[in-house]
Amino acid sequence: MTEVGEAHVLVSPFPAQGHVPPMLKLAEILSHAGLHVTFVNTDNIHRRFLASSPALQRLAGLPRFRFRTIPDGLPEDHPRPFLQFLDLEESLRTRSREHYRELLVPTGKDPDGWPPVTCAVADGILRLASEVAAEMEIPVIFVRTSGACAVWAYLCIPDLIKGGEIPFPEEEEEKEEDGLDETIRGVPGMEGFLRRRDLPSFCRNAKSTSDRSLQFVTNANANVRRGRGLILNTFEALEGPVLSHIRSAIPISYALGPLHLLSRTFDDCGADAPLSSNSASLWQEDRSCLKWLDSQPQRSVVYISFGSVTMMSRDELMEFWHGLVDSGKRFLWVVRPDLAEGKIEEAIQEDLEKETKERGCLVGWAPQEEVLAHPAVACFLTHSGWNSTLESVAAGVPMICWPFFADQPVNSRFVGDVWRFGVDMKDKRGRSVVERMVREVMEGERAEELRRSAGEMAELARRSVGEGGSSYRDFENLVKDIKAMSR
Ligand code: UDX
Q1: Are 441 and 422 in contact (CB under 8 A)?
Q2: Where in the sequence is the signal peptide annotated (predicted)?
Q3: Closest among 426, 35, 40 to 199, alpha carbons compared
Q4: Of 72, 123, 407, 424, which is the active-site residue?
């Protein structure tokens, strides 16, 4: 029989904000469960996270947890915009291979006297990890940081291509608006519901089957299907039916979400303890907004954030800004330094002084989990990134979805039309739409309804991570399966 301490997992996320924090949470609970955990960051990401996240220092102090870093192969002064993730992935795969191999199967003795790596837990889009682990015959369990609804749509892409549904037929291009409302047949469980406009953005943008992003997704799918299992940051009560479809393709799929709540079940405080700044971020959090929220009436504030990578044109941003001002509501808005071209604070400063001084607060980066849990927050205007979506679900906060790319169009469709705790403003941008949707989610009967369904799902999220809950059970199974690999 293998002793508990003998299992050793090498956890490797794709180096980006949407990917590293959820995998850190997963790594932390694996370590709490008695496994040795080596967490692999790129040098660049690790430096940035260390500078802004106390959570990293705390993790480094855990007894069976350690960080290791590898270069990403890009020049020091490369801006590494996430939107060029294909270049980053390629660079890692080709230039960082030896570094990764040395962590997976070291040539010398382990400096800490740890056992050899028995299992790789790798981001499904990180081909570096899957290829090297296959070469070295180490079992891999993959993690996808998107929701099950998007992962299932991704997994169906080869069938959509085979069935001629993507790339979208050319004759439709002229009447693009009508074409985008056509429903998709090739995603089982979503037939007649998912429209072309709701598919992951790679499908919508692809002009041919040799499109680089489409190829990338197809490779990631093939990867994930070859693993010993798939970990998803979701929970049965939210995505049970879609999870069943995924399990028809990948039978061993663990739904462990919301990971940020599950990790609190396993730390000393428990899932219901008050939040503290425990997250990992690429930017320094501006905590002054919590004080500002303290001075606002209950459920009066729209919280706005577009995640870590979305960028807008200046026109888009101004249109949005006017909609927000016209709604007359209080707001807390995260304006990342690189959210739009040029210094947008200057453009809106005048309005801010004139009209919104009392009712608006701008920050560069917020402690989002804490903001969403604050009683003054009434709704979340989000880009529908999966982490943001799940954090909002966990906090019971209704959403106004303004999706941009990748999995976001699928997520927002589910929020608006399946789970019904938000509204989807996809492809309908403009100041009057922003104003109308903010009012819809903040005022009257509809607002009450949305808040009620959001509250009910938040309760189910809490139950799923508690002892005996579905995510808790899946986590126990995951640990059992990893330990079995080290025998
Ligand atoms: C990206 C994609 O957008 C997303 O669709 C995909 O699922 C993962 O990669 P990102 O755009 O950063 O991620 O969005 P999201 O997944 O929502 O992650 C953003 C994270 O940053 C959240 O955990 C959120 O709490 C955090 N955040 C955001 C802050 O801590 N403070 C902020 O001010 C804004």
Answers
A1: yes
A2: none
A3: 426
A4: 123
- Tokens linked to 438: 């903010």
Q: Is 392 in the pocket of ligand 1 (CB under 6 A)?
A: no
Ranges in the chain, pLDDT < 50: 1-5, 273-275, 277
pLDDT of 275:
47
Q: Are 263 and 280 in contact (CB under 8 A)?
A: no
Give me ligand 1 centre to Cα 18, in Å: 5
- Residue 405 Cα to ligand 1 midpoint, Å, equals 13
d(CA 367, CA 199): 30
How many other C-beta atoms lie within 10 A of the C-beta of residue 354?
9
> Does the annotation count 123 as an active-site position?
yes
Pocket test for ligand 1, best of 388, 404, 407, 411 (most atoms within 8 A of CB): 388
Nearest to 131 by CA among 216, 36, 227: 227
Q: For residues 418 and 397, what is the distance between their CA atoms, to the nearest angstrom? A: 16
Q: What is the pTM of this model?
A: 0.94
Residue 1 pLDDT:
39
Active site residue 427: no
Burial of 185 (0-12, 13-18, 19+ CB in 10 A): middle
* Structure letter (DSSP) for residue 353: I
